[in-house]
Amino acid sequence: xxxxxxxxxxxxxxxxxxxxxxxxxxxxxxxxxxxxxxxxxxxxxxxxxxxxxxxxxxxxxxxxxxxxxxxxxxxxxxxxxxxxxxxxxxxxxxxxxxxxxxxxxxxxxxxxxxxxxxxxxxxxxxxxxxxxxxxxxxxxxxxxxxxxxxxxxxxxxxxxxxxxxxxxxxxxxxxxxxxxxxxxx
Length: 185
Description:
The protein is built from 10 helices and 5 strands. The chain is mainly α. The relative contact order is 0.08.
């Protein structure tokens, strides 16, 4: 059903919207529309911006720059009390590479580089074809698997030894060139 929005409706939204989903539902019930219709109006009115965002300080940016070469994004997010997305976005804006650590990659990053899924990678690691260690030296089972630490040189050796394992359509070619030739693109 189509709702013809009036200025009174918009004023009611301005007064009662508390930047929460519950407030959208409550407003929707009063106005007889869905919470998604309310969300659309909130965007059009320009009042959707969250008010609880924490701005980054220069000290936090420096800390992020020091942590990125050492830890995966999930760990940094916990250490800095930020979301994973906040860490990834800030790193991108500051032009910090999330993949270029002190010579190692996470299993997820290797999956993205090689264009493969986690099962494919886990089979290669468990069969010994691709050398990997567990983060912090021990197996940490969380969700559906362990977090692996794959050295750049081990990945390079794997790519050179088993080039037919890669599907050219899915690989991150720029990253592969960087790993094999040491050419920073």
